[in-house]
Structure formats: C-alpha cells, structure tokens
Amino acid sequence: MFQEFFEIIRNVICFSLVSFVILELAPKEEYKKYFNLFAGMVLIIMVFVPLEQLFHMQKGVDGFSDVMKKLLVQNEIKDYDRYFKDYDQRYLEEVAAGYRDEVIQNITAIIEEEQLVVNDIQIQLDMNTESENFLQLQSVRAHVSAKYQEESLKIREIVLEKSESAESLAEINIKNKISQFYNVKKDNINIIK
Fold first, then answer.
1. Model pLDDT for residues 52-99, shown as the tens digit of each residue
2. What does the domain layout of the chain look like in residue ranges?
3. What is the pTM of this model?
4. How many CA atoms lie within 13 A of 35 on its CB side?
5. pLDDT value at 152 more than 50
6. Given a cut of 80, is residue 166 above it in pLDDT?
7. What is the pLDDT of residue 1?
8. How many CA atoms lie less than 13 Å away from 31 in the CB half-sphere?
9. Which of 126, 122, 120 shows the shortest CA–CA distance to 138?
10. Nearby residues of 4 by Cβ (< 8 Å), 6 or more positions away
11. How much is the average pLDDT of 102-113?
12. Percent of the chain beyond pLDDT 70?
C-alpha cells in the first residue's frame, strides 16, 4: 500500500516538474493560463484515479469519475475552440489589413507613374473565407489630381473643350494596368479627378 502511495507522489512530482518547465517555455503569456488550467485538471485526475484504485472505491466513485472526466474534457474543448476561433479571426484581420495596404501601395504606384497624385483611394476585397476569390480585389475608387498645378490647368482647359465624360490617356492606362494586374473589370475601377 505504501509503495502505491509513493508511486502516486512520485508521478505527481514528475508531472509538476515537467509542466513547470513547459510553462516557462510557453511563448506568450496568454497561453500560460490555458496550460495551467489543463495541467491542474490532469493533476487532479492523476491523483484521484490511483487513489480510487488504491482504496477499492471503484463501484461508487467510478460513475462520478467518468462524469467528471467528460465534463472536464468538454469544458476544455469549448475553451480551446473559443480561443482558437478568436485567434483565427484576429490573424485573418491582420493578414487582410496587410494585403489591403500592399494593394493600395501598388495602385498608388501605378497612378503615380502617370504623373498623377492620389488624394484618396478606396478598395473593396472579397472577405468571404469560404469563397474561392477570397481576398481578391473587387473594386477600386481613386480620387486623383495632376502632379503639377500648371499641368492641371492645361488639362482642365482641354477637358472643357471635350465632353466631360471622356477619359484621359492616363486614366485609361491606370485602368488597364490595375485590371490586368488584379484581374478586376474596368467598370469596377473609378478614377475621379
């Protein structure tokens, strides 16, 4: 009987040491609380099950032990599901924000190649994770102006002589480049002067 008791104590001490080492190696503070919860439950089970066998209390406690184990595992699974769902959502938002910034920078560079200045740019990405077009560019709306004020006046004079709906060569080039690079319909790209 004492041998079994000392074996239980030895197992608990070994588990505690290993869990302490793993806890210290955890990369983030937020993981530590989940590991502590999990390690505590495992420790309770490590102590309770051998004691149950040691004192031959199987009949009355066996059902209780199974119910407790199931409840503990179910709660752990729910906690991990919630945590990882939140983590996945945060990670997805970070990736989408980074990609959105890259797309805006690329479109800005394309517009600036045509000697125009971007005043405002708005893009729309497909954010449906189930879609095969996930993070694909759907539309672009850019407010631009001429890079140099003198050119702006000359362009406005020329535009007034033509119809107001006519697109400039720069606008056509910008739409072509964005359309080819991001596979977006030209109708979904709006350049506003």
1. 776 665 454 455 666 677 777 788 888 777 777 777 788 888 888 888
2. 2-92, 106-192
3. 0.48
4. 17
5. no
6. no
7. 62
8. 8
9. 126
10. 50, 54
11. 88
12. 82
Residue 115 and residue 141: Cα distance in Å, rounded? 18
Report CA-CA distances (Å) from 126 to 38, 96, 176, 182. Answer: 38, 10, 21, 12
125: part of which helix (H) or strand (E)? strand 116-125
CB 37 within 8 A of CB 79: yes
Q: Per this entry, what is the length of the chain?
A: 193
> Shortest CA distance to 38 belongs to which of 63, 54, 18, 52?
18
How far is C-alpha 115 from the geometric centre of its chain's CA atoms?
36
CATH number 3.30.310 given to 106-192: no
- Residue 31 and residue 84 in contact, taking contact as beta carbons nearer than 8 Å: no
The pLDDT of residue 13 is above 80: yes
Please name the amino acid found at residue 100: R
Residue 13 CA from chain centroid, whole number: 39
Q: Report the amino acid identity of residue 181.
A: F
Token representation of residue 146: 């001429």
H-type alpha helices, the chain? 2-25, 29-54, 58-113, 149-161, 169-182
Tokens at 87, concatenated? 């983590």
Kindly list the strands in the beta sheet with 189-192, ordered across the sheet, starting from the edge strand earlier in the chain: 116-125, 137-146, 189-192
**Residue 28 carries which DSSP code?**
S
